[in-house]
Amino acid sequence: MQLQDILFSQGFGTRRVCAGLVQQGHVRVNGEPVDDAAAEFEADGDLVFTVQGQDWSYHPKAYLMLNKPAGTECSQKPSAYPSIYTLLPAPLRQRPQKGGTTGVQAIGRLDQDTTGMLLLTDDGPFIHRMNSPRHHVPKVYEVGTRHPVDARQVERLLAGVVLDDDPRPVRAAACEATGECALRLTLTEGKYHQVKRMVAAVGNRVETLHRSRIGGLALPPDLAPGQWRWLTQDEMAALRDPS
Ligand code: URA
Predict the structure, then answer these.
(1) What is the average pLDDT across 56-77?
(2) Which domains does the chain have, with CATH numbers?
(3) Ligand 1 pocket residue status of 111, Cβ below 6 Å
(4) According to the model, what pLDDT value does residue 239 have?
(5) Which residues are catalytic?
C-alpha cells in the first residue's frame, strides 16, 4: 500500500495532506525517513511509523479503551461538558470510514458524571454486536449510594425492578454489597440511566458510578482517568469470551 494511502487510512488527513506530510519530511517508517509519498509498504500490524515526531502503529480497525473521567459527555456535540472525543488524538477522530463518517465512536454511552471503562471503535458491526441485547455482554458497575445498602435492596435488584419506560422487570445479573454505602452491580442490558433508575427503584440513590469491567476485560489500574490505549489481541478475545 502506498505510504500516502496508509496515512490517509489512519486519519492523518486527505490524501493530498498525507502526501504533503511525507514530501516535507515529517514521516519515518520503521525508524527510517521516507520522502516518497507513493513508496509501498506492507500495511499490517508490524508497520510502525512516526508522523511529526509521534510514534504510531498501523491498525486496519481501531479498538480502544478509555478511562472516562467525570465531567465529560459521550457525545460528538456535547451540551454542557467537554466531549470524551477531545481526549483522543486527531487521527483517531478523523479515520475515514465507509459511508462518509469519520473516526472512532464510543460503544454505548456513560453519563457525564460516570467514570470508568469505555470502549471505542470504528468497526460498525462490532459496535452492533457489543450493544445488542442478544449478546448479553456483562458490564460491571461500582456504585456509591447515598443511603446504606441492605439485603432487601440487593434481593430486589437481583429479582428485578420495573422502570417507568417498560413494564417488563429489569434485573441485575449479579449484585453484592461491597461496603456500607457501596454496591457492585452487573448488567447485561444498557437502558438509559439504568443503574441510577434501578437503584432509585429500590429506595436508594446513586452518588457515584464507575464502570470497572466489560465482558472479561477489567479497567487496568494503570490507565489513569482521561487516558486511552489500543486494545491488545488478548483483550479483544477477553471481550468476546467473558469466562
Ligand atoms: N447506568 C447509569 O445510570 N448511568 C451510566 O452512566 C451507566 C449506566
Answers:
(1) 96
(2) 3-57 (3.10.290.10), 63-133+217-240 (3.30.70.580), 138-214 (3.30.70.1560)
(3) yes
(4) 84
(5) 111
